[in-house]
Amino acid sequence: MTEPESTELDESVREAVERSRSGAPAVGSVVRDRFSSDEVFQRIVAAADEEITSGARELFFSALAAGFAITITFLLYVSMKASTGGDPVLSAMLYPLGFIYIIIGGYQLYTENTLPPVALTLERLASIPALLRNWVVVLAGNLFGGTLGAAALAFGGVLSPEAANAALELAQKGVETPWWSLFFKAAFAGLIVAGVVWVTFAARDTISRLAVVYLAFLAVPLGGLFHVVVSYTEMVYLVMNGQLAFLVGLTEFVVPVLLGNTFGGVVLVTVVNYFQTTENRLESARFEGAKRQLSIREWVLGGLVGRSYVPLIETEEGTDDHPDSYRVVVPIANPRTESHVVELACALAKSKEDAIVDIVHVVQVPSRVSQRYGAAQNQRIISHSNEQLEDARERAAGYDIEARTSTVVSHRSFEEIFTVARRKDADLVVMGWSNDRIWAGGRAERTMSELTSRLPCDFLVLNDRNYDTSRLLLPTVDSPHSALSAEVAKSLHSVVGSEVTLLHVADGPDDRERGEAFLSDWATEHDLEDAARIVDDSGDIERAIADRADSHSMVLMGATEQGLLTRLLTDSLHLDVVNDTDHAVLLVERATDRSLRQRLFGR
């Protein structure tokens, strides 16, 4: 091996070693044993991303363990207070022990969550609803754990009589503190806790973190400050001893402490530290997450309108496209079995000038699985996906169009398609559909009517049984979805020579003449005068389509005003022609602006 090659290999190995599994820096770039504020921020974002995308069960039980661990702090504090005659310094010597368990052990504590998830949210890599969900779950777990701990102390005979009296006195003193005094004392405690989190992410070894946590939390009792979970445990202990009404303790003691801790952590630490970082704060963390920031609407409303956070991995590389390019996005779950979807998308793109086909392999992982993907695992996923996408690239090459492939790994399936379509500014999405496709799992993500009420572009959904585009049956009505079906039929006719048959169903025999006139005008309007025409006067649209489906190789079905994708993903698309025919069916929905009233009640 030559010297340059050896040097290059050494640098590669060093870079791999000096990165954590999430991509955040493991050593400083300027001074190896000291991180810059940007590098600390990157480490915090990497940790916060794992927390905010964890399942509710995982978060809750981690928070419950933290809440119960706080009982150790309360227990040792009142025990030391009783045994030392109330000496303020000696009494506090073991106070930090519960917090050491929590922070070093990686449990979820609400006051710690005023920094990492908020930093992620400020960077628009997580939505505000995702942050609030994280806070609610963690706080609920902390308080439940504190309740269990207080019950154990109150009824378990753990405390000596002297320590029990000290506990009552301590809790009573907190309750009697004025509301605003509690708030500001708690704000300083919140500052200390969030500051500890920042400093522990700047530390490189456990001994340093241990020293920081101990000294910082020692300042809470010595300064007469208040921590919400400790205060809640004290309050519940007082209630269980019949010394206080729960609601009074909650509103006059716990709430001001909660607000103060939140204010101190978010405003005095997180926001201040955020604005002292530079534009390079996300240079490497979160797979260049700055390029995938949420829109303002997604950031404010989160899952109600789109993404709550960004994908785990995305291999797309930035390109300089012509602004007038026609973009066709093809999200696929299994590149080896969805070749017909790619073929259809390429045929449609071929009929457009300056068209680009983006084939996106969407790899879904269960939401309950933590995002602990290391560099080696990431590379395996990407490498395997690239191998699977080779067939798709070869098919696209046969159409002599510009085609690109990329891989996205995400906890979402169908929702991720909308994210990709918006980010790529797609004109058309072509995807596959059958009962065993990954998109069937989209129903569990969130309300599909919310997701599909405002499509980012036109959608085609292909059920590719016996895929064949030689003979197309196109049912016609006066709707934008039927007009999109006409555009698809024209494209396939010009590129692969498809024969097109137009079908219109009249209300009855008396309406047949009007139906013939409509179909003639419709064919002219959509430049399909050469297509064969059929007018059915049975008045039964579904039966009319089913009767003629077997004599054609593919049926193009336009959406109703209720919405194709909404019905498809909520299992309400019960059409015999779709389920029973042995031929391919292409479901078509055009992106239209519908008012709230129209989305609720139809047109």
Automatic annotation (TrEMBL):
This is Formate transporter. Signal peptide: none annotated. GO terms for cellular component: plasma membrane. Coiled coil: none annotated. It comes from the Archaea. Residues 1-10 have a biased composition (Acidic residues). The keyword ATP-binding does not apply. The chain crosses the membrane at residues 59-80, 92-110, 131-159, 179-199, 211-233, 253-275. Residues 327-461 form the UspA domain. It is found in: Membrane.
